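Suppose a colleague, Dr. K., hands you the sequence of a protein chain of 222 amino acids and asks what its three-dimensional shape might be. Before reaching for any lab equipment, you can write down a predicted structure in token form. Begin with the sequence itself:
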Amino acid sequence: MTASGPQEWAAVDERLAVFAREDAALAAARTSTEVASPGIEVSRQFGRLLHTLAVAAGARRVLEFGTLAGYSTIWLARAVGPTGRVCSIEVNRDHAAVARRHLEAAGVSAWVDIHCGPAADVSARMVAAGVEPFDLVFIDADKANLPTYVERALELTRPGALIVVDNVVRGGRILDPGDDPQVRGVVDALAALQGDDRVQVSITQTVGEKGWDGFALLRRVG
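The predicted structure, expressed as tokens, is then:
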């Protein structure tokens, strides 16, 4: 067996991209350089996974923490279709404007709402307003506030809903988070989930074009 590393991981993702085919709108959102941190969007394979999970769950209402250029938003919007709704939270108004253009090009903007502002504040207002529960939540915002985001996701979903949390392995740094607030936020969020009888938790490590990381899949049971 040959040695493997980031170059081989990316090559495998490229080979498997046939299972996550993109049209021009998706490709444009994924490769956008109009955002402050290009390249941090989800991978093609993960976008397809989000789409598959939403379809399999029969999701009609989806909440997303972190819009960026709208790549994962498009996958989720196409999963729920025009009779569904995707609510996405983005702190950066410039990013939100970029995402809206990509959503328009993808033909899904009519059933996507982008809420601008800090995710902790926007989601708190949703809880206070008693919005209709969501069927699926995708969390891909800053990880320093992840414990708050996960708790809000649990407050805003119905029993049986799915919550997907990206970037929870962080190249293995969760073993020794030090004083990195992004890694510490992940460690604290995972610690809070231990013994939480509201959820079933599954965590999977991943390697690929995005490097070594992983995601948590939560199912709200109560």
